[in-house]
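Inputs:
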Amino acid sequence: GAGVSQSPSNKVTEKGKDVELRCDPISGHTALYWYRQSLGQGLEFLIYFQGNSAPDKSGLPSDRFSAERTGGSVSTLTIQRTQQEDSAVYLCASRLADTVLYFGPGTRLTVL
Amino acid sequence: AQSVAQPEDQVNVAEGNPLTVKCTYSVSGNPYLFWYVQYPNRGLQFLLKYITGDNLVKGSYGFEAEFNKSQTSFHLKKPSALVSDSALYFCAVSGAAGNTGKLIFGQGTTLQVKP
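Outputs:
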């Protein structure tokens, strides 16, 4: 069956530009998560959506980061005015009722 | 504060030998513990989890892990390593009761299995 998909797989941008990263969760999964994987910081939780509840944004590193989830399905992570320290792999994951997160392949973001 | 420690950056074993990848945790309350594996340029794949019940849990690809409450450990093991097991392994713990998707990850351990 289809897993979590993310696009683009790679994104190169210039410092100061805005970027949008997309995540398509597994159909029917009610919970969606964004994580960031970088060499210096390892795997960091960013934000979590559960159904119609207000998202848990406690992991967002700055107000340049935001995310939305439309119709309880697709999610977009937006980074405004990108900085070089934003370079990382951004991973999306979804979950149904059990405890397991299913991760997508990630988007590798490079800020020049 | 809740945390996960993987004390070894890299583990090297010969094919056919048993392997252990270590993980210790610190969390208030009963932990939900997980192991994930990441192959190059791929996302994380779930291997196994401990929620409750038997301390020895079995997972994918012949891996198992033992929950030890007194030592706050959850080491990953496999009786006979394969070259194809070479990858980056992450231990994770649920950071919030009732929400096991908000995981705290260890720094990862690279497993290198040599023929």
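Remarks. The interface with chain A takes residues 32, 34, 36, 41-46, 49, 51, 90, 92, 94-95, 99-108 of chain B (CB under 8 Å). The CA atoms of residues 24 and 73 of chain B lie 4 Å apart.
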